[in-house]
Design goal:
Helix 7 runs antiparallel to helix 8 and helix 8 runs antiparallel to helix 9. The protein has a domain of 84 residues: Serine Threonine Protein Phosphatase 5, Tetratricopeptide repeat. With 211 residues, it is mostly helical. The longest helix is centred in the N-terminal third of the chain and has 24 residues. The N terminus is likely disordered. The protein is built from eleven helices and no strands.
């Protein structure tokens, strides 16, 4: 996160320097980047051929956001959701707003994603991150918990590296435990012994020998 924040002032300086040129040409910052960024050449070809291809604008937004071109990425995501009400693109837009500290806009976009797909686990997780950023403890725990109920893999640091910095994980795991196996107030006994009690299938009996 520190690296991203160090890149923001440079991006702002470049944008300010280019503003007069863009105003004269009628191009937006996104148009300018698309015209010059070789890494975006394949996607530029797609949107030039099909300007209404929403998923291509979403991919452009992802590429730009990962390189801290936040203003341009936001414009790309906005073009995507204007073309198609896709929950993934809305959530990407919300995540970008969260990265930029625009919490109200982040919440609005992520809630739009959830309205479109109530089972979108990552959107619930990101909504929890908005609550965490705004120090809303109950909302953060509730939304993170919902995310893990929908997709337990989000708790895996290999798939979701941000989880290692989630200060609410202990509380969430405790709540999930209490609502499942921990809901039993007393231990349960078994009426079988040996392997059967441990859940193993009974051993097959030896076949009878013909006389």
């Amino acid at each position: 996160m520190r690296i991203v924040h160090r890149l923001i002032p440079l991006a702002c300086l470049l944008a300010c320097a280019a503003a007069p040129v863009l105003a004269e040409s009628g191009q937006t910052p996104l148009d300018q980047v698309l015209a010059q960024d070789a890494a975006l050449a394949p996607l530029r070809a797609v949107v030039e051929a099909e300007p209404g291809k929403a998923c291509a604008w979403n991919e452009i937004g992802k590429s730009l956001a990962r390189r801290a071109f936040f203003e341009e990425a936001q414009e790309a995501f906005e073009r995507s959701v204007q073309l198609a009400d896709d929950p993934v693109a809305w959530n990407n837009l919300g995540s970008l707003h969260l990265t930029r500290g625009q919490y109200g806009a982040a919440r609005s976009a992520i809630q739009k994603a959830i309205a479109l797909d109530p089972n979108f686990a990552l959107a619930w997780y990101d909504l929890g991150a908005v609550d965490q950023a705004q120090l809303h403890y109950e909302g953060a725990v509730k939304n993170y918990k919902r995310a893990f109920e929908l997709d337990p893999k989000l708790a895996d640091p290999m798939l979701n590296p941000a989880i290692v910095n989630n200060i609410y994980m202990t509380a969430i795991r405790t709540m999930l435990y209490q609502e499942t196996v921990g809901a039993l107030s007393l231990p349960l006994g078994s009426t079988c012994g040996g392997a059967a009690a441990a859940g193993a299938p009974p051993a097959a009996s030896a076949p009878a020998h013909a006389p």
